[in-house]
Amino acid sequence: MTVGLETRLREVLGKKTAEALADGLGLDTAGDLLGHYPFRYAQRGDRTDLGSLAIGDDVTVAAQVRAAVKKTFTPRPGKGRGRGRGDLLEVIVADEGGKTLTLTFFNQGWRAKELVAGRWGLFAGKVAQFRGRLQLNSPQYQLLAEDASDPSGAIEEFAGTLIPVYPATAELPTWNVAKAVHTVLGLVPSPPDPLPAPLRERLGLLDYGTALHQIHRPESHEYLGAAKKRLKWQEALVMQTVLVRRKAESAGEAADPYPEGGAILDAFDARLPFALTRGQQEVGAEIAAELAREHPMHRLLQGDVGSGKTLVALRAMLQVVAHGGQAALLAPTEVLAAQHHRSIAEMLGDLANGGQLGAPTEATQVVLLTGSATAAQRRPVLDAVRTGAAGIVIGTHALLYDGVDFADLGLVVVDEQHRFGVEQRDALRAKAKKPPHTLVMTATPIPRTVAMTVYGDLETSRLTELPAGRSPIATHVVPYTDNRWMQRTWTRVREEVAAGRQAYVVCPRVGGDETDDAGASDKRPPLAVTDVVEELRANQLSGLRLGLLHGRLDPDEKDRVMRAYAAGEIDVLVATTVIEVGVNVPNATVMVVLDAERFGISQLHQLRGRVGRGTHPGLCLLVSEAFEGSPSRERLDAVASTTDGFALAELDLEQRREGDVLGAAQSGMKSHVKLLSLLKDADIIAASRTEATALVEADPELKAFPEFAALVDDLAQDRGEFLEKG
């Protein structure tokens, strides 16, 4: 039979195997299976390093049998193995370096006949520990052939070669996946090559069929490297072509131009009590020039914590307002939206009093719309938005609702872009008469390859220098189990409060009836704000004015607490990560992060950015149980060693899996990007960007390369939600 990449596996492998592949791994077609690449390769004599295995991990290891010993045991009462004595077979396997692993089989002594000393095999199971020794209990295994004519049922096609180890399941071990791949590879003729032939030949890349065979059945390390390079190039080029084509399409749309300057912007600039940083001036000039064009701006504004992004965004909004348009600022939480509303109104002063007696003629209204607003509160806001009296509209997802109608929406500013979905962004853009200009802001530093990949259809700007008046932040790791250090931690908080300043205490969860699966296997659950605030009130911080803030509070209560804290009526705010971004209280100088090892690098960097925002130095204390030398402690030490958010972002990328970087919401990306590493393959990503640009400029519809165009369309249309960045 003729088998193509689109052929269903049921037709090739039979119902039972096909259903196992579909249910366990989501593989339905021959193309799906051949795109299920091995995640590593084993080889007789390779250094698997059995000593590096972690207890609880599901592993597949290549090892050699050293000995098989039969023992008897008496089951303990209540263990369900019946009465009398049982048989135990212990098989010792070892890697090339001599490190051993014990395999245990209960009442299966017959396995000793095939698990004989000297045989190599693949052994799969969950790592456990018994009396100080690592072991696999009743593992699945597959012996490797001793030679090509070995009749023992071993995997003879692996004789003398690299052995692919696949992502697998307990019901579908790697060797069963390997056998299915072997069958399909033999039936699929050389598939059409989707990469444009001129590019492939110029770069010296393998053809598609050869690459598939060599990724699954590599003849050597050299062939394997060539196959990976070719398949990575395909992933990168498809992805970058989608981004380049989308960017080109956006550039062809018509938008309303808003000339540089304008009365309200000029009046605002004249009142600024400080000079803009050089970065703010340069980025502001880029944005101003783009707003003045007749095509929509699509720009990503990256700014490290405290770099002054909000001021840059406000000046862009005022440019639009000055020429009759409206600007909408979309924030992910009510706390952040309310913070933006307060800070922007304060910065504008009477320029935010549009329509009021005595206000400057160029003034506008700045309104806030959130989901918790009552009908009576919403009515005047909606009227101001509809008539255009409100030039700046700040809100949460409530801005997306039906009934929120803009007079002339010209600019959409999205804060903390990664927290919004495609439909939400498009719903706001759809409220404009023409495609609006879009400014995407993030305070999370983004490594260059991630920006090029995930935000590749946007122009990017970076703010790296801090405005004048920002104070340095010192960060230290505090061992939770050291009472002396902990006492000093709370003493420091008291000292800052006694000096007239304020503090934050951050916990990883809310508490109460909240469930927390992440802490289910730990010795104790993560600390919760509802518990910690009571403990601090009764003991360590008794006598101080403590406030409580978390995401499950009523919105009015959240706003009341934040206003009280900003007004200095609360000494210490005990909170979850709801304060992670945007919260600006210059008088707050110290932050204590409890269970700090439960937060990521970027999140910790964002959190500590809430202190040191005024004239006094900031102090961030990372309280942790992580022991010296552990990965968690190394992560905390890295955060303590630098305040350079972009350097930390690169480190964060090194320590995380690619899927974590791409994010759960970007499943389309992950389904197309299987080999390409945003960390290790920056050269391929950058080069593919150049090639994609040339391809799209020469042939926007990619008519000359239909197979490649089909891959691009599949990613863009079916699974490209992650690309919709505004």
From TrEMBL:
GO molecular function ontology, one term from the record: helicase activity
Domain Helicase C-terminal: 485-654
Record-annotated membrane-spanning stretches: none
SMART domains xref list: DEXDc, HELICc
Domain Helicase ATP-binding, residue spans: 290-463
Keyword list, A-Z: ATP-binding, DNA damage, DNA repair, DNA-binding, Helicase, Hydrolase, Nucleotide-binding
Entry keyword Repeat: no
NCBIfam families found in the cross-reference section: PRK10917.2-1 (NF008167)
Protein name according to UniProt: Probable DNA 3'-5' helicase RecG
Lineage of the organism: Bacteria, Bacillati, Actinomycetota, Actinomycetes, Glycomycetales
